[in-house]
Write a structure and sequence with these properties.
It is built from 29 helices and 32 strands. It is α/β, with parallel strands linked by helices. Helix 5 runs antiparallel to helix 6.
Length: 982
């Protein structure tokens, strides 16, 4: 059945509003880049094998997107894994998966490049290839099919995906992305065969081509390993690519907006690599050596990113930000620059262990969104095994510092299933949590809660634990029961454990070989999708696939001989032969290795030039094989500290104030810093310190609350596919991009003071939306028109402002003045005729309108949170009449075009509710696909919300006077049906 298209010429136009979060696929975000395909040599589709909400936050995606689109020879577009509802629509309608920017099928690109972050996203890769109309297996691709390539951390153990990828980039991708794409496309244009093009890529370095290497079964393990290249001149081991990250400034203009991302903030990478050497951590091994970004570059990037994205939170990220040499002065400088902009600063993985007191006092004065620490193990012996250079004394000292500063909760991350673990070590996890809670209770002089979150250790390739066995499911279950028994007496400790089934599958594919390719494909064909989502994991499907191919899973999870060749040994991540084995042996002996790049025995770097220059001791290096210039490293750190003005040790802040609610005093520069600290690992729910909750800050006088303005705007195209809360989140970003001095609300989480017109259902277009804003400026009419123009340049596609006016304090707010709304219900005439309307569609619709209006009541059933509720539609419906004049005016129908039929309806909006446009449409003609457009907000007879002279008190809606149209059908006047001039 034909339905008018929300997005003209988009292959998903007819059904996008029928899937969850349709904006995941619509594009139009601020910061997205759409280049002309005819102007470039090579086209690249960056593919993230998880849902948009997760992929939008990925740093590597942002880096490559910027590099490829800044290069005039290449372009980059994006695609994310389709969620289950979208996959069902693609299957039913036989349409391909397309890119976000230009809606092109994946098969049209020169290169499709996947980001491999996690083993449990592998089935999504096959989904994306299938719907992208690309043959799943490399061996089945023809001369004109795209190059399918991958990079990322799990590309360092690629064999379970070897059959599906043409190539893998090993290491940093900044220098390789353009080189690979251009080489591939240029050789194709020269008529070079696909195989010879792959050989050419393999010779570029840091590119692994699975089809060009021979394999054999290793007798010691039963695992299939790579033995040698099939083509002379190719390397037997593929060395990684490594770049100077300061040559590639972090992007400050990435796509932002759309449906809310999981990590909805502007994240800035400040360093790559880690000094700590935790033996379970793959990232800490494969990203060596530590490379820090110039802090001045970071500060400038942060400021530009805030301006370009409009987001209200910036996060500084690294594997361990506490071990970035200038982190203390960097946090101070960035927070000072962001404070007056009301931008929160998030700092991930910031260990409190051993941090300088002045930084802790800085933290004390600001609001934090999460306090999370990762001791990893419950006993000192086990912390030595994993090389976690943290003592329990430091953990308890941290707890005392945190709880004494007003927080009432702390979260601790641990693992079970580590090598040499005993039951005492398992019970030690709870006991460490209990001791932490006891210290916290004493320090807080009251209640202190500690959440202990325990995951299952998965031994990963390229780590010292790559040879260790993973605990069996039964052993994990036994240890989790032991945790539950141990935690019972400790009421202040909350225990959270994780299902081990997904972890076991992760281990199999992390340490797997090429025999798993068949298993992966069969599981995917039988419905395996989004395996990293607990509710989506289908264990029975995976069980059937392993059994079908006779794959013994134990060989992937049992202990591996140190002397055996492993399926990932042909990938050289830069570590010296024997280094990982030495670390493994030290782990089995419970021996520590000190952090590299620091003086032995120190916990954090010097925070000022004076101390750094005075310390002449040697930096630790334990010969991992990565070439580090310790002299250059020391010099660079001193240079960075000097650039940030950290010349001498700062005095401690005496009696630093506890966290205060942030209100809206003027001028903005007088506001306290608003920093969101996430300490060690991922953020958790906001915890406002108890001491802050007891203090009230008086509201500023009304005269300090700025001026009220009403803006009217359209919500069409991609914006019609965003929910109301997404719109509420997007408008402040537009204001920040325009540097508009918005007035903020009071409380712990201040937001711009704004009130919107009544929310619309997803997929409903509108040319008559309104929002009341408070702004710290007195704008003239000319100023407002200039601001509107600026807002439209900084708004996502379909978010269009067209008028505004200043409100007096006596003018009714938008929420109080609205008494109703006018909608245009739009059908394709062909759909109505198919439903039995006959040749005269408008005569049929007129009859339907008259029948509905004549009915004394019309009951409809509405489901609210799964509970059915009966509503009388006639209680809210005031008028319904055909409007053929509007059918050929797309600008008045939110862009809808075609052979259309239009009915105008007026509905009441009361304190008791209203009726949806879709409900009226169904009452009129039944289940015939339609579109709805809000064309006016009503205040009694007033249809222009900027007609302030006539909107002084609430009035009832009166039905519009019907005017005869040219064809004799009743229709309201066009003037009355439209909002103020656009």
């Amino acid at each position: 059945m034909e339905i008018p298209a929300l997005l003209p010429n988009h292959p998903y136009a007819a059904f996008l509003d029928q899937v969850e979060k349709p904006a995941r696929y619509a594009g139009g975000e601020v910061g997205s880049r759409v280049k002309n395909w005819n102007d470039v040599e090579a086209t690249v589709c960056l593919a993230f094998p998880d849902v948009y909400d997760i992929g939008m936050s990925h740093l590597g995606f942002k880096i490559l997107y910027r590099i490829l689109n800044d290069d005039p020879r290449t372009l980059a577009e994006r695609v994310y894994a389709p969620w289950a509802d979208m996959e069902a629509e693609l299957t039913k309608r036989n349409v391909p998966l397309v890119s976000i920017e230009s809606a092109r099928p994946l098969r049209d690109f020169s290169v499709v490049g996947f980001s491999l972050q996690y083993e449990l996203t592998y089935t999504n890769i096959l989904t994306m290839l299938h719907f992208g109309r690309i043959p799943l297996r490399s061996a089945d691709r023809g001369e004109n099919d795209p190059l399918v390539i991958a990079g990322g951390p799990t590309a360092t153990h690629p064999e379970p995906l070897a059959a599906f990828f043409d190539a893998f980039v090993i290491g940093d991708g900044e220098e390789k992305c353009s080189e690979v794409a251009l080489t591939w496309e240029r050789l194709k244009k020269q008529g070079i065969s696909r195989r010879d093009r792959l050989i050419a890529l393999a010779k570029l370095g840091a590119v692994y081509i699975p089809s060009l290497y021979e394999t054999a079964v290793n007798p010691d393990t039963g695992l299939t390993v790579v033995t040698k290249p099939l083509v002379p001149g190719l390397p037997s081991r593929i060395e990684r690519s490594m770049v100077d990250i300061n040559k590639y400034p972090f992007p400050d203009d990435s796509p932002a907006g759309g449906p809310e991302a999981i990590f909805d903030r502007m994240s800035i990478e400040i360093a790559r690599g880690c000094t700590e050497g935790c033996r379970f951590c793959q990232a800490g091994m494969i990203y060596r050596p530590v490379r820090e970004r110039d802090p001045e570059q970071v500060v400038e990037t942060v400021l530009r990113a805030v301006k370009n994205s409009g987001q209200d939170e910036v996060s500084l990220t690294a594997l361990s930000t506490a071990d970035v040499s200038c982190i203390s002065p960097l946090i101070k400088k960035v927070s000072q620059r962001l404070a007056e902009e009301r931008i929160s600063l998030g700092v991930s993985s910031l260990r409190a262990y051993g941090l300088e007191p002045e930084l802790l006092d800085e933290i004390k004065r600001v609001r934090a969104t999460g306090l999370t620490f990762a001791p990893e193990a419950g006993t000192q012996r086990m912390r030595d095994v994993v090389n976690k250079n943290v003592t329990e004394e430091q953990l308890l000292e941290t707890a005392e510092r945190v709880f004494s500063r007003g927080w009432g909760k702390m979260k601790l991350y641990f693992m079970i299933g580590l090598p040499t673990e005993t039951d005492d070590d398992v019970k030690g996890i709870i006991e460490a949590g209990a001791r932490t809670a006891a210290v916290g209770k004493k320090a807080a002089k009251g209640r202190a809660e500690v959440t202990v979150s325990v995951s299952v250790h998965v031994p990963k390739p390229h780590t010292p634990f790559q040879w260790a066995a993973m605990d069996t499911l039964s052993e994990v279950s036994r240890k989790q029961k032991l945790l539950l028994e141990t935690v019972r007496p400790h009421r202040a400790v909350t225990l959270r454990t994780h299902d081990a089934d997904a972890s076991l599958l992760e281990c199999i594919f992390a340490r797997g070989d090429r025999t798993l390719c068949d298993v992966l494909e069969r599981a995917w064909k039988n419905g395996a999708r989004f395996d990293s989502w607990d509710e989506r994991l289908k264990l029975d499907v995976w069980e059937e696939a392993f059994v079908h191919f006779g794959i013994e899973r134990e060989k992937f999870i049992n202990t591996l001989p140190i002397t055996a060749k492993l399926p990932w040994d042909h990938i050289d991540v830069g570590l010296e032969d024997g280094f990982l084995a030495r670390e493994y042996r030290k782990a089995l002996q419970s021996r520590l290795s000190p952090p590299c790049g620091k003086v032995a025995g120190t916990f954090v770097h010097h925070t000022n030039v004076e101390d750094a220059e005075a310390d002449k001791r040697r930096l630790v290096c334990y010969d991992c094989g990565v070439a580090c210039d310790m002299t250059q490293m020391r010099t660079e750190r001193i240079t960075f500290l000097g650039a940030l003005g950290a010349k001498k040790r700062l005095p401690l802040i005496e009696n630093a104030p506890t966290i205060q609610p942030i209100v809206d005093p003027l001028p903005p520069s007088d506001e306290p810093n608003d920093i969101s600290l996430t300490i060690e690992s991922s953020p958790i729910e906001t915890e406002v310190p108890a001491s802050a909750q007891k203090k009230r800050v008086p509201a500023p006088p009304r005269s300090a609350r700025g001026k009220r303005y009403r803006f009217v705007f359209e919500k069409i195209g991609p914006m019609a596919l965003l929910g109301h809360l997404d719109i509420v989140r997007e408008l402040p970003r537009v204001l920040r991009r325009c540097e508009t001095p918005a007035v903020y609300t009071q409380g712990f989480h201040p937001k711009p003071d704004m009130t919107f017109s009544p929310a619309l259902s997803l997929g409903v277009l509108s040319v008559a939306e309104a929002v009341d804003l408070r702004i710290n400026a007195d704008y003239s009419r000319e100023d407002l028109l200039a601001l509107i123009e600026k807002m439209n340049k900084n708004a996502p596609a379909g978010f269009i402002f067209y008028d505004a006016a200043q409100l007096s304090e006596t003018d009714l707010g938008i929420a109080k003045m609205i008494t109703g709304a006018r909608y245009a219900l739009v059908w394709a005439k062909s759909a109505l005729r198919d439903a039995g309307a006959g040749a005269d569609v408008y005569a049929w619709l007129t009859q339907k309108c008259n029948e509905l209006l004549a009915a004394p009541s019309f009951s409809i059933r509405r489901n609210i949170d799964g509970v059915g509720k009966i509503i009388d539609l006639k209680k809210y419906l005031r008028s319904a009449s055909v409007a053929p004049e509007l059918a050929n005016q797309p600008n008045k129908l939110g862009g809808l075009a075609g052979d259309l039929a239009v009915v105008i309806v007026d509905v009441d909006i009361t304190g008791g509710g209203s009726v949806k446009a879709s409900e009226v449409a169904h009452a009129l003609v039944g289940d015939i696909g339609h579109r709805a457009v809000r064309i006016a907000l009503l205040a009694g007879e007033v249809t222009n919300v900027l007609d302030l002279a006539n909107i002084k008190k609430p009035v009832r809606i009166e039905a519009p006077v019907a005017q005869p149209s040219a064809d004799g059908h009743a229709s309201p006047s066009i003037e009355a049906a439209q909002p103020a001039a656009t």
